[in-house]
Amino acid sequence: MDENETIKHDRAFPLVMLPTWFMPPFSLWRWIYVAVTGTAINYLAVRWALLKGHLTRQAALAAFAIGLTLWMIEPLFFVVLFVFFASSSLLSKLNAQKKKTAQDKAAKGSTRDVHQVLANGSIGLVMAIIYAIALFAVLPSWISHAAIFSSIAAIAAPNADTWATEVGMMSAKKPRWILDLHVQVETGTSGGVTLRGTTAAVAGALLVMIAGALIGMLSGLINLLVAKEWILVGIAGAMGFLASLVDSVIGATVQGTFQCQTCGKETEKRIHCSLPTRLVRGKGMIDNDVVNFLASAFAGGSTFLITALILAW
Ligand SMILES: [Zn+2]
């Protein structure tokens, strides 16, 4: 098999030729083109996020580095992350006022810090790097193909979780404890679930899945004329949604929950009413960022295993 065969195999129906600088034919101009467009797009996105208060300065730097790397590996990876970033940022700001009380429980506000960016984006980045290595080293094509679906799942997971949290907080009804649905908990409690929130999680996972499938089809990476590809796309979306449930279960069990010594409120904060809080449940080291990272890793890892098995069959 020569190099051209490999490319044809990977891009079944390239409707739009999007740039992938490390694919043959190599050229300096192509590399410059991808680097310049990637820098411009990511600069604008990050400027907007800083202006609107979606990201802290450090988070913006991390987002810029991740976004540029994803764009340069393959625009699909960037688009998927961008859909998550834009939709969840807008949703987070939507009823900032209404959910003020609920946010008092959460450790952080609606401005994302660098830990949140890394917790939500690093598995998607790892999958993109696996994709790049598989192409560069001319490894069997099921590896690069499975990496595409895994990165979609790894980003669908935090999108589902963010949508569930944001829409769930708007619910008039109190959330129920995921480990015992008969028990009601305070709005904003990790491990609390609502019907509206769960429906939003499905929608959030679907949005990222559809965005990934469309850009995948446009760039010839996912061939939706083949039934098998629909199944693989569906697995990515399903695992993204499932990961948001895993997120809730981990949130209810091992995530550290603290209680204020002064006002008695349960919170994820280490300090409340200007005094250190007391650990009442879970492990103190495991905060919401660790839980989100684990959920994204679950989505990406399980999707890689399942799709690789199907593709290598
Ligand atoms: Zn307090």
Q: Could you please describe the fold and organization of this structure?
A:
The protein is mostly helical and about 325 residues long. The chain has one domain (about 5-250, about 290-310). About 65% of the residues lie in helices and about 5% in strands. It has 10 helices and 8 strands. A 3-stranded antiparallel β-sheet has the order 2-1-3. It is globular and about 65 Å long. The model is unreliable at about 1-10 (pLDDT under 50). The site of zinc ion has 6 residues, from loops.
Nutshell version of this structure?
With 313 residues, the chain is mostly helical. It is 65% helix and 7% strand. It has helices at 3-10, 28-52, 57-73, 75-94, 100-105, 114-136, 141-170, 195-218, 227-253, 288-312, and strands at residues 176-177, 180-184, 192-193, 257-259, 266-267, 271-272, 275-276, 278-281.
Tell me, briefly, the overall form: globular
Give the SSE order as H and E letters. HHHHHHHEEEHHEEEEEH
Side by side, the strands of the main sheet go 2-1-3
Q: Mind telling me the C-alpha Rg? A: 20 Å
Tally of contiguous helical segments:
10
Beta-strand residue fraction:
5-15%
Average pLDDT reading: 88
Structure classification: mainly alpha
Number of domains: 1
Quantity of strands, as a count: 8
How would a crystallographer describe the biggest sheet?
3 strands, antiparallel
Tell me roughly what share of residues is in helical segments.
55-70%
Q: Characterize the quaternary organization of these chains.
A: single chain
Q: Which ions, cofactors or small ligands are bound in this entry?
A: zinc ion
* Unreliable residue stretches: 1-9
N-end to C-end Cα span: 21 Å
